[in-house]
């Protein structure tokens, strides 16, 4: 993603949630607001990461089925994640970590780019039922009724955190900013001159700054899930990080990316992943059934389809 150029802004780039994040503020020169954003990013990374020891998610995953007290934010995100799991019949599945952790799409080392043993995938798939995650909202307690189920919120956490950063920015009086969490763009207001921001939809496997289309909008979330950010290739087959919860293998349905336009980024994040898994027809059907959510689907031949509320 890249925003249209503008004159004066302050910004900060850092690395959280296994990805590059950037916050850019157009209408305020106070660097301490950026400090605040990065503190929040660190806080949520430590709270929600499945791999960070002592995160809320790590504690649940290592509880052997005992009830675990977690923060209200974790409860709220798990609640939303389970809502989308049910809505999409498990296409979006927050209980997929036992399978996800068999794969390594991020390593720089060629040696790690291997397809896991099918037997291991089949065994892991037996412990991916999201209905075994029991959330007690009133008491802020999570219990896994299958202790071998492991939670991973990588497909929704960045959206959730972007919303939290926006809330903070607005509290600080910011009215013009862009929050970019590794391809999850959340706009705060408009550009300082009251015109729209333009967000580019990256060309899958293209060069930096190559876009297949752009979205001009204000105050919205623009989130993309795609095959091209985390993947490895063996011969001509691309193995990427969005897995079909039914098979445990990367989704292979002709899509290269799905971009969701929504008010809240948590919804866009869950839906971008879900639609990618659901595929062109069921995915678009889901988007059309939802109010105030739009989508652009990019296919492996670089053709694009848009939901009815979007135009070319
Ligand atoms: P990105 O990580 O690029 O933002 P997504 O939001 O689509 O992309 O999230 C993909 C991540 O979510 C994967 O790296 C993995 O951790 C996890 N994941 C993979 N497949 C699924 C799925 N079907 N449902 C939920 N989470 C998934
Ligand atoms: Mg995402
Ligand atoms: Mg997502």
What features would you describe in this structure?
The two termini are 18 Å apart. The chain is of the alpha+beta class. Helix content is 29%, strand content 26%. The radius of gyration is 19 Å and the shape is globular. The chain has 2 domains: 185 residues, T-fold; 94 residues, ApbE-like superfamily (T-fold, Orthogonal Bundle). The longest helix has 18 residues. Bound molecules: adenosine-5'-diphosphate (ADP) and magnesium ion (MG) (2 copies). Adenosine-5'-diphosphate binds next to helix 7.
Brief summary:
The chain is an alpha+beta fold.
Features:
8-stranded antiparallel β-sheet; T-fold; binds adenosine-5'-diphosphate; 3-stranded antiparallel β-sheet; 8 helices; about 300 residues; globular; alpha+beta; binds magnesium ion; about 30% helix
**CATH T-level fold name of the largest domain:** T-fold
Compressed to H and E, one letter per element, the order equals EEHHEHHHEEHEEEEEEEEHHEE
Structural class: alpha+beta
**What is the typical, i.e. mean, pLDDT?**
95
How many domains, as an integer? Answer: 2
CATH class of the largest domain: Alpha Beta
Termini distance?
Answer: 18 Å
Strand order of the largest sheet: 1-2-6-7-10-13-14-15
Low-confidence stretches: none
Tell me what the CATH architecture of the largest domain is: Roll
């Amino acid at each position: 993603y890249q925003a249209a150029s503008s004159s004066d802004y302050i910004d900060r780039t850092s690395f959280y949630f296994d990805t590059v994040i950037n916050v850019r503020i157009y209408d305020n020169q106070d660097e301490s607001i950026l400090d605040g954003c990065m503190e929040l990013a660190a806080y949520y990374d430590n709270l929600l990461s499945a791999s960070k020891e002592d995160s809320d998610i790590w504690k649940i995953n290592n509880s052997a089925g005992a009830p675990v007290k977690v923060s209200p934010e974790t409860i709220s995100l798990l609640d939303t994640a389970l809502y989308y799991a049910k809505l999409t019949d498990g296409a979006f599945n927050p209980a997929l970590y036992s399978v996800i952790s068999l794969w390594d799409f991020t390593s720089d080392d060629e040696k790690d780019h291997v397809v896991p043993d099918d037997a291991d995938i089949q065994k892991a798939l037996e412990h991916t039922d999201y209905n075994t995650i029991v959330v007690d909202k009133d008491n802020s307690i999570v219990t896994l009724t299958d202790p071998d189920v492991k939670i991973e919120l990588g497909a929704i956490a960045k959206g959730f955190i972007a919303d939290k950063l926006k809330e903070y920015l607005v509290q600080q009086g910011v009215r013009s900013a862009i929050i970019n969490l590794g391809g999850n763009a959340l706009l705060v207001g408009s550009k300082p001159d009251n015109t729209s921001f333009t967000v580019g939809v990256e060309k899958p496997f293209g060069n930096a700054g190559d876009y297949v289309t752009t979205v001009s909008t204000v105050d919205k979330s623009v989130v993309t899930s795609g095959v091209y950010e985390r993947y490895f290739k063996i011969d001509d087959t691309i193995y990427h990080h969005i897995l079909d919860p039914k098979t445990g293998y990367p989704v292979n349905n002709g899509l290269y990316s799905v971009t969701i336009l929504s008010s809240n980024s948590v919804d866009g994040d869950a839906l971008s992943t879900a639609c990618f898994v659901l595929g062109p027809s069921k995915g678009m059907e889901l988007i059309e059934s939802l109010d105030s959510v739009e989508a652009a689907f990019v296919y492996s031949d670089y053709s694009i389809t848009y939901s009815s509320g979007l135009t070319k």
